[in-house]
Amino acid sequence: MNNQKLIARRSKTLGPTYQNFFDQPLHLVRGAGTAVWDADGREYLDCYNNVASVGHCHRHVVQALCNQAATLNTHTRYLHAGVVELGEKLVEGLPGEIEVCIFTCTGSEANDLAVQIARQVTGQQGVIVSEASYHGVSELTRRLSTDSYPSADRPEWLAVIEPPNLYRGPYRRDDPEAGRKYLELARQELDRLEQRGYRPAAIMIDLIWDSNGPLIAPKDYLQGLCSEVRKRGGLVIADEVQSGYCRSGRNWWASDNYGITPDILTCGKPMGGGHPLALMSTTRAIIKDYSRQHHYFNTFGGNPVSAAVGKAVIEVIENEDLLQNVNRTGAYLEAGLRQLASRHESIGDVQGCGLFWGLDMVADPATRDPLTRQQMTRLGSLLVEQGVVTGTSGRYGQVLKLRPPLPFSKNDADRALAAIDAALPQLQL
Ligand SMILES: Cc1ncc(COP(=O)(O)O)c(C=O)c1O
């Protein structure tokens, strides 16, 4: 099918802020499980989409959506059992003392609210994020997204710390003191924040540093960082939009993998299996303090249809034992990726966990010069030609990102690995 007319209509109507992946934009019209189909009927393996967390168009989720949409949809100002049941289900598994849920439609809204709450209850204004972070699109969360605007425009209340990149960062995997040294860098930034007159209200951490990698942090670093922020009166906000919902493997939440107990945890993308549903969750003490002066109402957040969908997604994860699948297939995929890295010089590093993997692509393994964005677009397009959909991330856009729906199978992994193996030699470096 010729997509040129649709591309022209799209750019005329939607404007230039909308972008397409790949040299030739994909026109997807259908999905099922880990497969998607384009308008010509060609099937692709989806190695990228975490929003369709339990697989595209899962029957149980679609059924729950249709049933509730055909029954009633209102909002959280009326009593409805659905939203309460979703909250109760989530609270069973949330880390530490987190036991109160506020539902929103997007991760941006959840993070925005999290910072508003942190500022209110601590009485402090500073916020700490990582270099090249991404936390959303609202006025506030855009400021927290240091990958989205020039560093000269950073507000004074923002402290930006070095993410623990053990392949590219200042301290690397061969340094047993790396965690302590990254922590020391963070301390220095916190001191500078205070010298500018701002004590921290919160640190917001994407626990897989998606826009940098993904990255795996030394445990002592993360635990030390949380203690340091708390010592200065700030809260810990775990942004688990990317890392949560079994994505990181071993546990439902990456916070538990790192042994940290956040004060606030946010999530979004995977919760609705494609439907807009997101979460700001916190402790009873924090929400009690906040609600002395504030109410929160989000017209669509936590509506009965969203709640039914959210519950259905959790049921699928439990009924199909998708956490075990992430552990099993994730380990298999990792082994295959490391095998590929041993044969392809352009794979500088393999980093990730669960079903979230990144290949840090280099022009030269000695210098670790990253592949250009143009070369990465080419690589993505070569993979599409092989019938495999991937993404990119990283500070230079140099990481080939594999973050498929959670039911990803070993056969799917084999297909992805074979496609990468075939595509890399065609990439003219
Ligand atoms: C780590 C992280 N936090 C927050 C967001 C914002 O979520 P949303 O796009 O639902 O507003 C994203 C989106 O990509 C994200 O990756």
Give an account of the 3D structure.
The chain has helices at residues 4-14, 59-69, 81-93, 107-122, 139-143, 178-195, 219-231, 254-258, 284-291, 304-319, 322-343, 373-385, 410-423; strands at 28-32, 35-38, 43-46, 98-104, 126-130, 158-161, 200-206, 235-239, 264-267, 278-283, 347-353, 356-364, 369-370, 388-389, 391-393, 399-402. It has 429 residues and is an alpha/beta fold. It folds into 2 domains: 4-54 and 321-426, Aspartate Aminotransferase, domain 1, CATH 3.90.1150.10; 61-319, Aspartate Aminotransferase, domain 2. Helix 2 runs antiparallel to helix 10, helix 3 (81-93) packs parallel to helix 10 (304-319) and helix 11 (322-343) runs parallel beside helix 13 (410-423). It is globular, with a radius of gyration of 21 Å. Pyridoxal-5'-phosphate binds next to helix 4.
Binned strand content: 15-25%
Q: How would you state the average pLDDT, rounded?
A: 97
Q: What's the helix-strand series?
A: HEEEHHEHEHEHEHEHEEHHHEEEHEEEH
Rg from alpha-carbon coordinates: 21 Å
Tally of individual helices: 13
Envelope shape: globular
Largest sheet: 7 strands, mixed
Number of strands: 16
Number of domains: 2
The CATH homologous superfamily of the largest domain is named Type I PLP-dependent aspartate aminotransferase-like (Major domain)
Residue stretches low in confidence (pLDDT < 50, at least 5 long) are none
Through-space gap between termini: 31 Å
- Which structural class fits the helix and strand makeup? alpha/beta
CATH class group of the largest domain: Alpha Beta
Bound ligands, each once: pyridoxal-5'-phosphate
Q: What's the architecture of the largest domain in CATH terms? A: 3-Layer(aba) Sandwich
Strands of the biggest beta sheet: in what spatial order? Answer: 4-10-9-8-7-5-6
- Kindly report the CATH topology of the largest domain: Aspartate Aminotransferase, domain 2
| Helix proportion range | 25-40%
